[in-house]
Specification:
Layout (H helix, E strand, L loop, with lengths): L1 E9 L2 E9 L8 E5 L7 H11 L4 E5 L22 H14 L2 H17 L8 E6 L1 H12 L4 E7 L17 E7 L5 H13 L4 E6 L16 H24 L1
Parallel strand pairs: 3-4, 3-5, 5-6, 6-7, 7-8
Antiparallel strand pairs: 1-2, 2-4
Helix pairs in contact: 3-4
């Protein structure tokens, strides 16, 4: 695998970023990956590496770049329940400062950078994200329906902007919810809104999981949940970025 440390020009400065792709000299479909609220760190880089092993150019920006280079927040190697209050006290002000306007401005810069890379194939890309990064992924996809063919979000507050936010979503979507984040009744309401907007989607609760289940450096990690995440994400990307390009 080939890894890169990058600087992405944005309207507000330079966003540091991590990129990874197969080291075979070929071009690959692009995937923009947003980290969770704990930011760009080793476990997120490993998720990006695993995804790239399946034939993708994966770009992971530090969307908290306005507050410094990653890691913006100093984190313990493993985040247990006893660490969570202190960590969240540092993270939540960063999340609150990351407004919709900042998200959309950055999304334009991130997509432009990704699609301009010589190792990235022509055509639409995918956007994926975790926790708050899943909401950023949704906002990116809805703002750029002509550029994003696939959207995946995991343990993410994808309903935060209301059902009207799905109106411009043309990407095929997968939403993997933690069992502690969404009741079955709330899931039905969300899926009804997606159906009403005409979104092609799978939106489901991953049994037995808690918020943050994909992140192996936290107590929330669930190996079955992470495996299910790959079982949903990889076919979605293959359908939308690989098979559609070859048809």
């Amino acid at each position: 695998m080939l890894t890169k440390t990058l600087q992405i020009p944005t309207a507000d400065g330079q966003a540091d970023a991590f990129a990874v792709l197969p080291d075979n000299g070929e071009r690959h479909p692009g995937v923009l990956m947003y980290a969770d609220g704990l930011g760009l760190r080793s476990v997120v880089r490993e998720l990006a590496r695993e995804l790239a092993r399946h034939g993708y150019y994966v770009l992971v920006p530090n969307f908290f770049y306005r507050h410094g280079r990653a890691p913006v927040v100093a984190l313990p190697a493993f985040i247990g329940e006893e660490d969570r209050p202190a960590v969240m006290a540092q993270v939540m002000p960063l999340v609150a400062a990351h407004t919709v306007e900042r998200t959309l401005s950055d999304a334009e810069a991130f997509l432009a950078y990704l699609t301009a890379q010589p190792e990235v194939t022509d055509g639409p890309v995918a956007v994926t994200g975790y926790c708050i990064g899943g909401l950023l992924a949704l906002r990116t996809a809805t703002a750029h329906p002509d550029r994003v063919a696939a959207l995946a979000a995991f343990h993410a507050p994808v309903g935060a902007d209301g059902p009207e936010s799905f109106g411009t979503l043309t990407a095929e979507a997968h939403f993997g919810h933690a069992a502690t984040d969404l009741t079955p009744e709330a899931l039905d309401e969300l899926n009804s809104a997606l159906d009403a907007a005409g979104v092609r989607h799978i939106s489901e609760i991953y049994p037995g999981t808690v918020h943050g289940f994909t992140m192996s450096d936290t107590q929330a990690f669930d190996a079955d949940g992470l495996r299910r995440h790959w079982e949903r994400l990889l076919p979605l990307l293959r359908r939308t970025l690989v098979e559609r390009a070859g048809s």
